[in-house]
Design brief:
Layout lengths: L9 H8 L3 H4 L8 H16 L5 H10 L6 H11 L35 E10 L4 E9 L5 E7 L5 H14 L4 E4 L3 H4 L1 H9 L3 E4 L9 H13 L9 H17 L11 H6 L10
Parallel strand pairs: 1-4, 4-5
Antiparallel strand pairs: 1-2, 2-3
Helix pairs in contact: 3-5, 4-5
Length: about 280
């Protein structure tokens, strides 16, 4: 348990306990109950309609009897870390010192575990407040290799998940991310460079470039998150941990020929039929 009066810094205690530093500093979010309800519904709509921007989401919410302005919807989307996903010219500049890497997976046949790993971040609503979830996924087997929760969108919890995945599972040939500042940060990319891993980044707003992580989010949301009302970060972490244990070891995937991610990841020699 974290002891704020202990001589060891909070970051050191978090590392010793194997939890994200970001979750140590959890405080109740100063977000109104009305906004939390809107954010929960925006998350559900975004999952089903990832192409919907703030105007379309506003209209969908109004059709449900929820009166809200487009600017407020856009503000909540930024707080959640979500945006409409579709192909468009990338006219924005990366943050200073942040390099955008080319997408390396186009027309690449992914035929074995540890060939390609991918990652992304998603919003997780709780009874009061919310957290962010990052997961490292093996593209071939769909296995979740490591994950972390955080109350902020800083890069540190993403780096922690990456370092754990590398320590536990070796390394991939290619690591694919989206263009969020957490993944373009020097803290994140230097870990990949040090391990001599090829860095691949999606086209901005192109969710299909990281489709397997998006499918994971759908499963986690509908089979776990939306069925719960986590009282706090500890409860969210414990419940999501149980679900991901089930997902990796017991949940069969039709795209894996009925195998679980663990079976597909461990049994390297067994061919898996191509998805229809």
């Amino acid at each position: 348990m974290i002891d704020r009066s202990h001589g060891l810094p909070l970051s050191g205690q978090a590392k010793a306990l194997g939890i994200s530093r970001g979750s140590v500093y959890y405080l109740a979010r100063p977000t109104s109950e009305a906004d939390l309800a809107l954010m929960r519904r925006i998350d559900e709509l975004h999952l089903d309609h990832p192409f919907a921007g703030s105007r379309m989401l506003r209209d969908m919410l109004k059709a449900e009897g929820r009166e809200v302005g487009r600017r407020h919807v856009a503000t909540l989307m930024r707080k959640m870390g979500v945006e409409a996903v579709y192909r468009r010219p990338n006219t924005s500049e990366p943050a200073p010192g942040h390099k955008i890497y080319p997408y390396l997976l186009r027309n690449l046949a992914v035929t074995r575990p540890n060939q390609v790993w991918a990652t992304d971040i998603t919003y997780v609503p709780m009874a009061r407040g919310f957290v962010y979830l990052v997961a490292i996924v093996d593209w071939f087997s769909r296995k979740v290799l490591a994950w972390r929760l955080s109350i902020t969108l800083s890069a540190d919890f993403c780096v922690e998940a990456l370092e754990e995945a590398l320590a536990r599972h070796g390394k991939p040939e290619i690591f694919n991310t989206e263009q969020g500042s957490q993944f373009t940060s020097t803290d994140f990319t230097k870990v990949l460079k040090a391990a001599e891993i090829g860095i691949s980044m999606d086209g901005k707003g192109a969710w299909r470039d990281n489709v397997f992580v998006e499918r994971l989010w759908r499963k986690i949301k509908y089979e776990e998150v939306y069925l719960r009302a986590y009282a706090g970060v500890s409860e969210a972490r414990a419940s999501i941990s149980r679900y991901l244990g089930f997902y990796n070891s017991k949940r069969p995937h039709s795209s894996l020929g009925g195998k679980t991610p663990d079976q597909a990841y461990i049994n390297l020699a067994t061919p898996i039929p191509a998805a229809a």
